[in-house]
Design brief:
Length: 64
């Protein structure tokens, strides 16, 4: 006798800081104060994560 078992693994959505928002396809190379006009990353990787809201930039891992 066989029995099928379905296992669903989920991860909790990251908690974003005040000036961030959750994106389903966050660019790991976001613009920063040091590189405000940074071009998109050469990677095709797409993963959910926190990104800066419009008008904000990363500065030392904080959004300003």
């Amino acid at each position: 006798m066989h029995r099928n078992v379905l296992v669903i693994v989920t991860t909790a959505a990251p908690k974003c800081a005040e000036n961030e928002e959750l994106s389903e396809c966050a660019n790991p190379c976001q613009p920063s104060c040091q590189s405000p006009n940074r071009k998109p990353c050469p990677t095709l990787q797409c993963s959910s994560g926190c990104i800066c809201k419009d008008g904000y930039r990363r500065a030392n891992n904080n959004v300003t």
